[in-house]
Amino acid sequence: MKIALITExxxxxxxxxxxxxxxxLIRGLHDFEFEVVALTGNGLETSAYPPPPNLKAVHNFPxxxxxxxxxxxxxxxxxxxxxxxxxxxxxxxxxWGTTYFLWALRAMAGYxxxxxxGAALLSEASLGRLIKAWKEYQPQDPANGPxxxxxxxxxxxxxxxxxxxxxxLRLVPPKADVYHAxxxxxAALVGMxxxxxxxxxxxxxxxxxxxRERYLSYLQAPYSPAVxxxxxxxxxxxxxxxxxxADLIVPVSDYNRRWxxxxxxxxxxxxxxxxxxxxxxxxxxAQEPEVPxxxxxxxxxxxxxxxxxxxxxxxxxxxxxxxxxxxxxxxxAGNERYRESCEKLIEELGLQGAATFxxxxxxAARGYQAGHVAxxxxxxxxxxxxxxxxxxxxxxxxxxxxxxxxxxVGDAGILVPARDPVAMGEACTALLMDPQxxxxxxxxxxxxxxxxxxxxRFLNDYRxxxxxxxxxxxxGRVPVQEEAKDRADLMLVGxxxxxx
Length: 500
Description:
The protein is 45% helix and 11% strand. It is α/β, with parallel strands linked by helices and 500 residues long. Helix 14 (385-392) links the parallel strand 10 and strand 11. Helix 2 (78-92) packs parallel to helix 5 (124-136) and helix 11 packs parallel to helix 12 (336-348).
């Protein structure tokens, strides 16, 4: 069986949780062949992972490289005008739903195989059509207020952004038995192109909820309200369309499943598979460190909300004066100013020498083993490796209750609200001052990983999923949803709902 694995901004060029997941999947399913279609920035990226023997090819397809193109006064064609009219109407009138958007996408994919789709999207006629559709639409609910003004400059900027995001419509991916996009958005477009051109099933996995993360990102971006509205409408429609087109949706958590259902996915088309790790790579250490220590293992990133972690540590240190906070992980390019803001906060709170950034650590298990308690302060997560790795090391954890973290932790760790340094500080203090509770919680965490979140289980689930989806496609029916079976006791904390 050959799998076309489709990534965006991750494997094999960027180190991170999604890339670890891809590498585990390819290496673990060594009897399957893989080709990776990687959507990247400029196409000049170099691989960060040695290729496994069953990875037959990597296709680097840049989304954001500059292309020499001038806007033209020539109208592409009357047929394209009709397609683009449906496209911009769907973008400006949310009630149109995904049907017209999907029709326009399919038509533009055909156009992109024969002509310059980018030039057509950026033509003066297309910009004028977008502005006209925007002005004609008035929200039905007066409480929503009028749309913000859309200037020609706004229309050009929004169209340029969308042109980049639609570039996968030019790409006919290599022939495969399954097209597996590991995120929604442009990667899902490649999956749909594989399905359209090769009549093979399309599987979609979301690690973070793509649409939610776009909202978190674009609402902070320096764009006008009109541009933000258009881009977020585009992502919302694209996400819903991908859910409709996917033969099977395989989120990494039940939390993601609920978001996907809310955004239009059919419940029967969703089969969550949790991440897994090799427990032998993350063993409990023989003893705890001498100094009371909290550890963080992960990249230095605003989504990890290290400001809250540092503020919570200040609370803890007032009650445990000799406590330390050791933070392990790289600072990705572009996050240098965020790292500086964290270091400035450490100075302002007088935590120099006690709260430290120590860079990447290898193997990662050493980072968890270096502390008494592992802490995760993220404001957004899917099903983080950092939590189950720390649990495998027998460490009690204090984590923010975001994404699928509660599914990982269960009752074997402490959950606190996001952006609440006092709650996090109280939880860390309580565990540092109670060795018996900390030890019992660490043992329960290790047992939970061995029962639910092993690499062996992860690979078995994916092997069966691929076989099911190919068999179902050959039989002309929809893949059946996997039953929970022995996971009936894997409950969502606070919801009483079993993971299925």
